[in-house]
C-alpha cells in the first residue's frame, strides 16, 4: 500500500494537503472520511487517528496527523520545488512564523464564521446571537488586516516572489467562510489580488475542484445527520449564547 | 548588535525559547518585556513585533515572532544537537506534529487554567465563577490526559527516546497550571517520570531559573486601573 491521505475537502487543512499533493504529482490514495456523516468518529478511523481529526497521512506503517506536519513531510520526502519551503534561513522562518500564527489567528476564526453563519443555524434551526456573530466577524477582520500588514505587505506572496506553503494554507483557510457565502476578500484589493495570484499559481482547475464540496455545502440535506452528532452541535451552540 | 530575545518568563513560549537558547549556549541579549505592565503594547515593541506578543527575536535587521518559528530558526542557525529537531524525516515529522497540535490544545488549556484560577482574581481583581473554573480545570484534565495517552505513551520522551523541541514546549506549557497550583502530575506517574527526565536533560538549575516567575504568579500585585483597562480586552481575546 502506498501513501494514503485521509481527507474530507470540507476541511481547510485537508484542502491544503490535497492541493499540495496533487500540484506536486505526489501519488496517493484518497481515503474519503465523510465529516458530514460523522465517519471521523468510526472505529476504523479512530485506529488511524484517535483524536478523530482530519487530515491524516499513512505511509506504510507511519501515521501522521496535523496538516502543517504533513505538508512539511511531503515536501521533504518528495523533494518538492524549494519555493514551497525555501531553504534560506530567513525565508524559511517567515513560513514557519505564518504556519504557527495561523492556527489561532486564521484557521479558527474562519472556521467559526462557517459554523456561525451556516452550520449552526442549518442544523439547530437557531441563529447564534447577533452580538457573538459580530464579535467573531470583527476578530476575523482584524486578523485579515494583520495578515495584510505583517505577512503579505507589498509582496506578491508571503515570502516574496513565489508561492510557498504559507500562501496555500492561508488561502484555503480564508476560503472557509465562502461555504456560507461570506467573502473575506472583498475588503482589501491587495488581498483580493494575492488571492488570485495564489489561485493561478496552484492552477484554477485544481483550486476550484478542491473547493467544490465547500461551495456546495449550503445545499447539504442535514436531515441525514447522525442524531448523536446533531446533539453535540446543539451543545456547541450553547457555548455561543 | 547581536541576537536579541524579547521575553517575559511569565509566558510559556518565552520559557521554551529561553531554556533552549541557554541550554545550547546561544549568545543573546535578553530584552525583558513586562507583560503585566503592558510593555508589549508599546510602540517601540511594535517595531520588533507588530503582533504585540512575546517571544520575539531580533537578529540584526531580521525580526521574528512565534515561539515555534523562533525555536526552529535557532535550531538551524546555531546547528544544535540533532535530537532537538532530527534530520530523519519521520522523526522530524513527529516533532512537527506535536508543535502544530499544541497551539489549540495544550497551550489553550494551560493559559485558561492560569488566568481563571489565579490571574483574573488576583491580578485583575475579577472573580471567576466556580462553574467556569471547574469547566476550565476539567478541560485541562482532558488535554493533559491526551498528552499522555496520545503523545507520550510509554516512550521516554514525547516523540521518541530523546528530548526534542516538543518536550521543551510541552513542559513549559504544563508549568503554567503548576504555577497556578494545579497538580497536573499527580496521579500520572508516566507523565511525572517524563517531567523528571526533561528537567534532567535541560538541567535542573536552568529549569528552576526559567520557572521562577511563573511559580510566583500567585503573588502578583493587583493591576492598577489603567493597566487593567488596557489589558482586559486582550486577555479576554487571548483565552477564549
UniProtKB/TrEMBL annotation, chain A:
GO terms for biological process: glutathione metabolic process. The lineage of its organism: Eukaryota, Metazoa, Chordata, Craniata, Vertebrata. Belongs to the GST superfamily. Theta family. This is Glutathione S-transferase theta-4. Homodimer. Coiled coil: none annotated. One of its GO terms (molecular function) is glutathione transferase activity. Conjugation of reduced glutathione to a wide number of exogenous and endogenous hydrophobic electrophiles. It is found in: Cytoplasm. Residues 88-218 form the GST C-terminal domain. It catalyses: RX + glutathione = an S-substituted glutathione + a halide anion + H(+). Its EC number is 2.5.1.18. The keyword Cytoplasm applies. Its main location: cytoplasm. Gene3D superfamilies: 1.20.1050.10, Glutaredoxin. InterPro entries: Glutathione-S-Trfase_C-like, Glutathione-S-Trfase_C_sf, Glutathione_S-Trfase, Glutathione_S-Trfase_N, GST_N_Theta, GST_Theta, Thioredoxin-like_sf. Keywords: Cytoplasm, Transferase. Residues 1-82 form the GST N-terminal domain. It comes from the Eukaryota. One of its GO terms (cellular component) is cytoplasm.
From TrEMBL, chain B:
This is glutathione transferase. GO terms for biological process: glutathione metabolic process. Homodimer. It catalyses: RX + glutathione = an S-substituted glutathione + a halide anion + H(+). Pfam families: GST_C, GST_N. Keywords: Cytoplasm, Transferase. InterPro entries: Glutathione-S-Trfase_C-like, Glutathione-S-Trfase_C_sf, Glutathione_S-Trfase, Glutathione_S-Trfase_N, GST_C, GST_C_Theta, GST_N_Theta, GST_Theta. It is found in: Cytoplasm. The keyword Cytoplasm applies. Belongs to the GST superfamily. Theta family.
Amino acid at each position: 500500500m502506498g501513501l494514503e491521505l485521509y481527507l474530507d475537502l470540507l476541511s481547510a487543512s485537508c484542502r491544503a494537503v490535497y492541493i499540495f499533493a496533487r500540484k506536486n504529482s505526489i501519488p496517493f490514495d484518497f481515503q474519503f472520511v465523510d465529516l458530514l456523516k460523522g465517519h471521523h468518529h468510526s472505529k476504523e478511523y479512530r485506529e488511524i487517528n484517535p483524536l478523530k481529526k482530519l487530515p491524516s497521512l499513512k505511509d506504510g506503517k507511519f501515521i501522521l496527523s496535523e496538516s502543517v506536519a504533513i505538508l512539511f513531510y511531503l515536501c521533504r520526502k518528495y523533494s518538492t520545488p524549494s519555493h514551497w519551503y525555501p531553504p534560506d534561513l530567513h525565508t524559511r522562518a517567515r513560513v514557519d512564523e505564518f504556519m504557527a500564527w495561523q492556527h489561532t489567528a486564521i484557521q479558527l476564526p474562519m472556521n467559526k464564521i462557517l459554523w456561525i453563519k451556516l452550520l449552526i443555524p442549518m442544523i439547530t434551526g437557531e441563529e447564534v446571537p447577533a452580538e457573538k456573530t459580530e464579535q467573531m466577524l470583527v476578530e476575523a477582520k482584524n486578523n485579515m488586516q494583520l495578515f495584510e500588514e505583517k505577512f503579505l505587505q507589498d509582496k506578491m506572496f508571503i515570502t516574496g516572489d513565489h508561492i510557498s506553503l504559507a500562501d496555500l494554507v492561508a488561502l484555503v483557510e480564508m476560503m472557509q467562510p465562502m461555504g456560507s457565502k461570506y467573502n473575506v476578500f472583498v475588503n482589501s484589493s491587495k488581498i483580493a489580488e494575492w488571492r488570485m495570484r495564489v489561485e493561478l499559481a496552484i492552477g484554477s482547475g485544481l483550486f476550484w475542484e478542491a473547493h467544490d464540496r465547500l461551495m456546495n455545502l449550503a445545499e447539504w440535506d442535514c436531515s441525514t445527520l447522525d442524531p448523536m452528532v446533531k446533539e453535540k452541535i446543539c451543545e456547541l451552540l450553547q457555548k455561543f449564547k | 548588535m547581536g541576537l536579541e530575545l524579547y521575553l517575559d518568563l511569565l509566558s510559556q513560549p518565552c520559557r521554551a525559547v529561553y531554556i533552549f537558547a541557554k541550554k545550547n549556549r546561544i549568545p543573546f541579549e535578553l530584552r525583558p518585556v513586562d507583560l503585566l505592565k503592558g510593555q508589549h503594547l508599546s510602540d517601540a515593541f511594535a517595531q520588533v513585533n507588530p503582533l504585540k506578543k512575546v517571544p520575539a527575536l531580533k537578529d540584526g535587521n531580521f525580526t521574528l515572532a512565534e515561539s515555534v518559528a523562533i525555536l526552529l530558526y535557532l535550531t538551524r542557525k546555531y546547528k544544535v544537537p540533532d535530537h532537538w529537531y532530527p534530520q530523519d524525516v519521520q522523526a522530524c515529522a513527529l516533532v512537527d506534529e506535536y508543535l502544530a497540535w499544541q497551539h489549540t490544545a495544550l497551550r489553550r488549556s494551560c493559559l485558561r487554567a492560569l488566568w481563571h484560577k489565579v490571574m483574573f482574581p488576583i491580578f485583575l481583581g475579577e472573580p471567576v465563577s466556580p462553574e467556569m473554573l471547574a469547566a476550565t480545570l476539567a478541560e485541562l484534565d482532558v488535554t493533559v490526559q491526551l498528552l499522555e495517552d496520545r503523545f507520550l505513551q510509554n516512550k521516554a520522551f514525547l516523540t521518541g527516546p530523546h528530548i526534542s523541541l516538543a518536550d521543551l514546549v510541552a513542559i513549559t506549557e504544563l508549568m503554567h497550571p503548576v504555577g497556578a497550583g494545579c497538580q497536573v502530575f499527580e496521579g500520572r506517574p508516566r507523565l511525572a517520570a517524563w517531567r523528571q527526565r526533561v528537567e534532567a536533560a535541560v538541567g535542573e538549575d536552568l529549569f528552576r531559573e526559567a520557572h521562577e516567575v511563573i511559580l510566583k504568579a500567585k503573588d502578583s500585585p493587583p493591576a492598577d486601573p489603567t493597566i487593567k483597562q488596557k489589558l482586559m480586552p486582550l486577555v479576554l481575546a487571548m483565552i477564549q
